[in-house]
Amino acid sequence: MKNNLKIILLVIFFSLSTNVFAQNASSAKAILDKVSKTYASYKTIKADFALTGENKQENSNFNERGRVYLVPGTGKYKIEMPNNALISDGKTQWSVLLDLKEVQITEVNPADKSINPANIFNFYERGYATRKTGETKVAGKSLHILELIPTDKSQNISAIQLRINKGDNLIYDATISDKNGNKYIYTLTNIEVNKTFSSGIFSFYKHNYPGIEIVDLR
Predict the structure, then answer these.
(1) Which residues of 90-112 are buried (b: 16+ CB within 10 A; e: fewer)?
(2) How many CB atoms lie within 10 A of CB 212?
(3) What is the total count of domains within the chain?
(4) How far is residue 131's CA from residue 147's CA, in Å, rounded to a whole number?
(5) How far is the C-alpha of 77 from the C-alpha of 95, rounded, in Å?
(6) Per-residue confidence at 110, pLDDT binned at 50, 70, 90?
(7) CA atoms of 141 and 210, how far apart (whole Å)
(8) Is 79 exposed, middle or buried (CB count within 10 Å of its CB: 0-12, 13-18, 19+)?
(9) Residues 142, 147, 152, CA angle at the centre, nearest 5°?
(10) What CA–CA distance (Å, rounded) separates 208 from 78?
(11) What is the per-residue pLDDT across 113-143, written as a single tens digit (0 to 9) for each?
(12) Average pLDDT, whole number, for the chain?
């Protein structure tokens, strides 16, 4: 009789757990759908970002800041940081390495799954199982907390935590954990939308970088 009771309780527990997980997954999808719809409605996006990281292998931390300009859905973006820049017109990518006085030219790889400030607005749209894990408040902002797990287990990423501003459906930050125990956090601030960018912002011009060497890897 006791064994039967244990089995019944176990079945009830798993049924409730599965139901809660399904509800959380459904809730997470609804939130991300709103986020996608919000970003897709913008003609352009400009934002400042901070990237902090913790490298377990090297026992080191780093902190970088920059700015991103992009046109959603076109592959056009420009990422500016103190020592480098990344520019794409949707077909060609220029990696400007100021400390090396070098720019590397490559073709855009549509299969690239790495996360950066340019695709942080839409990387989550496919390839991840999602669920809502809670809510929190930061600096007076109410945030949804979502967990994303890659469905492709060959990825080095083990999990991603997204925090979404409930007020405007914009991403507040993303915490990326990899299989080596390293952690990277992107925080977005000063988001401006539908601004007119200067002509040629998504192209590389050598005269803007005097003395730089061009390395064409295409």
Answers:
(1) eeebbbbeeeeeebbeeeeeeee
(2) 17
(3) 1
(4) 5
(5) 12
(6) confident
(7) 43
(8) buried
(9) 150
(10) 14
(11) 777 777 888 888 888 898 999 999 998 999 9
(12) 85
H or E segment and range at residue 193: strand 183-193
pTM of the model as a whole: 0.79
Kindly report, residue by residue over 18-49, the tens digit of the pLDDT: 444 445 666 888 899 898 889 889 999 999 99
Quote the CA–CA distance of 63 and 209 in Å, as a whole number. Answer: 24
| Beta strands 84-89; 76-80: pairing state | antiparallel
Which residue range(s) make up the domain with 182? 2-216
Neighbour-count burial for 167-201, b at 16+ CB within 10 Å, e otherwise: eebbbbbbbbbeeeebbbbbbbeebeeeeeeeeee
What residue type is assigned to position 107 of the chain?
E
Contact 115, 124 (CB under 8 A): no
Residue 85 belongs to domain with CATH number: 2.50.20.10
